[in-house]
C-alpha cells in the first residue's frame, strides 16, 4: 500500500477521476448515453466480475460501441479485433482530460486487475536514471530503471542499506529510454575522463593502468597516480554538469580550446573539442529534464474540460497529487498564491520515496508525459523551486494557467489523448478475440499490451 495515504498528501490524481457505469444486458442494446463522449479509461467486466479489457480512449462512448458491436456505431473495429459483447456485462468509465491522467489511471487499473499485463506495460514505460555513489570505495556510473542497477560490466541490486529508501548516492533523470541512459553514461565518462574499466578501479591503488593513462585521458586512480578523493571530485563535477549550470562549463571549455589552439597545442585542443561535443549533446530532448530524483518536483498545468480554467497537478516524492482547477477569469493571482501554498505544504508532508511499484509507475507516467513533444502534450511543467520563492512560483503558475485555459484549447478535450487507444487482454483468460497487438499501428493509435 502507498504510504502517502493518510499522510496529509493531496488526493491522488489517478483516483480523482469522475466515474460512471454502463450495464450491458444479455439481449438488446444498453443505454449508451450513460457513458460520456469524452476521453478517459474504460474497464470492461464479465459476469463474474473478472476484467476482460482495459482501454484508454479519446471517446468512451464510441469505444464501448465499437468493442461491444453496436449496430448503429460508425466506429469500426481495428483489423484483427472482434466484438467482446458476449462476455461483457458492465463497463466502468473514468474521465480523463489529458494523456497524463489517462496513463495514471490506466496503469493503476492494470496493476490492480491485470498484474501480468501490468508488468509488461510498466516495464516498457519505465523511466531510466543514471546512478553513482561518489563516496563508495570504487564509485561507478550506472543506469537504472529503479528496479535494479545496470553497469557496463556488472550488475547489482537497487536497494541500499537496510535503513535506506533509495540507494546511496545520486540518481539523475528522468531519461525516457535505456539506450539513451547508456549513451549518457558513456558521454559523461569520456567528457570527465572517468574510469572506463571498473575492474581496474576496484584494485586501486595497486592496478596496472590501462592505455587511457598513456593517452592523457585518465589520471589513473587505479594505480595510485591520482588520489581517490580527486577522482570522487571529478565524478561530482559530472553530477553538477548534468543537473546544474551547463553553459558555464561549456563556455570555459570553448575558451580553453581556443587558447590551446592559439598556442599550437593542437592535441589538447582536439581533446577539448571532443569533450565539448559530448557535453553539448546533453542539450538533446532526451536529456532536457534531468534533475536529481530526490529534488524532482514539478507543478503540471493541464487544459481542463471547463472553458476558461486549467487543472493543476503536483508531482513530488514520486506521487501525483490533484490540486484542482484554477479559473482564469477570476482572481487568478489569489488562486495561484493559495495553490502554491497548498503545494509547498504537501511537499513538506510527503513521505520519502521508497520506491513502491505505485511510485515507479507514477515516475514512468510523468516521465512519459514530459518527454512527449511540446506540441502534443498540451500542458506545462513548472519546476518547483528548492529555495523559497513563492511569488516567482505563483507568477509562473498564473502564466501557465492563462495559456492552458484558452477557450480554443478547452473546446477540444478529445485531442488531449491524441485519439489513441491502449487495449489489453489478461493473459490468464481464454482467448476472446485477437487484439491486433502484433499488427502494424495506425497513426495516432496504439493497440498493444506493450505500448
Any overview of this molecule?
The protein is α+β, with helices and mostly antiparallel strands and 451 residues long. The protein folds into 3 domains: 13-124 and 418-424, no CATH class; 128-287, no CATH class; 293-414, no CATH class. Helices cover 35% and strands 17% of the residues. The chain has 14 helices and 15 strands. The chain has a 6-stranded antiparallel sheet with strand order 8-7-6-5-9-10, with helices on one face. α4 (178-191) packs antiparallel against α9 (266-280), α8 (246-262) runs antiparallel to α9 and α10 (332-349) crosses α13. The chain starts with 18 loop residues before the first strand and ends in a 27-residue tail after the last strand.
* Order of helical and strand elements: EEEHEHHEEEEEHHHHHHEEEEHHHEHHE
Proportion of residues in β-strands: 15-25%
Helix content: 25-40%
Q: What number of structural domains do the residues give? A: 3
With strands numbered from the N-terminus, the spatial order across the biggest sheet is 8-7-6-5-9-10
Structural class by sheet pairing and helices: alpha+beta
Mean pLDDT: 81
Oligomer: single chain
How many strands, which pairing sense, and closed or not: the largest β-sheet? Answer: 6 strands, antiparallel
Based on Cα principal axes, name the global outline: elongated
Q: Cα distance, first to last residue?
A: 26 Å
Radius of gyration over all CA atoms, rounded: 25 Å
Low-confidence stretches: 153-163, 409-415, 430-451
Q: Tally the helices: what do you get?
A: 14
Number of strands: 15
Amino acid at each position: 500500500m502507498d504510504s502517502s495515504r493518510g499522510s496529509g498528501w493531496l488526493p491522488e490524481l489517478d483516483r480523482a477521476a469522475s466515474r460512471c457505469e454502463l450495464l450491458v444486458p444479455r439481449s438488446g442494446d444498453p443505454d449508451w448515453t450513460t457513458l460520456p463522449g469524452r476521453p478517459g479509461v474504460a474497464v470492461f467486466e464479465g459476469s463474474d466480475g473478472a476484467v476482460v479489457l482495459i482501454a484508454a480512449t479519446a471517446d468512451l462512448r464510441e469505444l464501448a460501441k465499437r468493442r461491444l458491436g453496436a449496430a448503429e456505431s460508425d466506429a469500426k473495429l481495428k483489423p484483427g479485433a472482434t466484438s467482446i459483447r458476449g462476455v461483457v456485462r458492465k463497463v466502468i468509465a473514468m474521465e480523463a482530460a489529458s494523456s497524463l491522467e489517462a496513463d495514471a489511471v490506466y496503469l493503476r487499473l492494470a496493476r490492480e486487475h491485470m498484474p501480468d499485463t501490468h508488468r509488461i506495460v510498466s516495464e516498457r514505460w519505465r523511466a531510466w536514471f543514471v546512478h553513482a555513489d561518489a563516496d563508495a570505495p570504487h564509485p561507478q556510473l550506472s543506469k537504472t530503471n529503479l528496479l535494479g542497477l545496470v553497469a557496463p560490466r556488472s550488475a547489482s541490486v537497487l536497494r541500499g542499506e537496510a535503513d535506506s529508501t533509495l540507494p546511496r548516492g545520486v540518481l539523475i533523470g528522468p531519461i525516457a529510454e535505456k539506450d539513451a541512459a547508456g549513451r549518457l553514461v558513456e558521454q559523461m565518462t569520456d567528457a570527465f575522463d572517468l574510469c572506463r574499466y571498473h575492474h581496474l578501479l576496484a584494485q586501486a591503488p595497486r592496478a596496472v593502468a590501462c592505455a587511457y593513462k598513456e593517452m592523457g585521458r585518465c589520471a589513473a586512480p587505479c594505480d595510485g597516480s591520482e588520489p581517490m578523493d580527486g577522482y570522487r571530485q571529478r565524478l561530482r563535477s559530472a553530477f553538477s554538469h548534468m543537473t546544474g549550470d551547463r553553459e558555464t562549463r561549456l563556455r570555459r571549455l570553448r575558451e580553453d580550446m581556443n587558447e590551446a589552439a592559439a598556442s599550437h597545442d593542437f592535441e589538447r585542443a582536439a581533446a577539448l573539442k571532443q569533450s565539448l561535443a559530448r557535453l553539448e549533446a546533453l542539450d538533446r530532448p532526451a536529456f532536457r529534464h534531468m534533475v536529481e530524483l530526490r529534488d524532482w518536483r514539478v507543478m503540471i498545468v493541464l487544459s481542463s474540460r471547463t472553458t476558461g480554467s486549467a487543472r493543476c497537478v503536483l508531482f513530488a516524492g514520486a506521487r501525483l497529487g490533484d490540486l484542482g482547477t484554477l479559473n482564469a477569469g477570476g482572481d487568478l493571482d489569489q488562486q495561484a498564491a493559495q495553490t502554491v501554498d497548498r503545494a509547498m505544504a504537501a511537499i513538506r508532508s510527503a513521505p520519502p520515496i521508497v520506491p513502491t511499484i505505485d511510485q515507479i509507475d507514477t515516475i514512468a507516467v510523468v516521465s512519459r508525459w514530459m518527454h512527449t513533444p511540446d506540441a502534443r502534450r498540451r500542458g506545462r511543467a513548472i519546476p518547483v523551486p528548492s529555495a523559497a520563492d513563492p511569488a516567482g512560483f505563483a507568477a509562473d503558475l498564473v502564466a501557465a494557467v492563462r495559456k492552458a485555459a484558452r477557450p480554443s484549447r478547452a473546446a477540444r478535450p478529445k485531442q488531449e489523448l491524441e485519439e489513441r487507444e491502449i487495449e489489453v487482454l489478461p493473459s490468464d483468460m481464454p482467448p476472446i478475440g485477437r487484439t491486433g497487438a502484433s499488427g502494424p499501428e495506425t497513426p495516432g493509435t496504439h493497440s498493444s499490451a506493450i505500448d
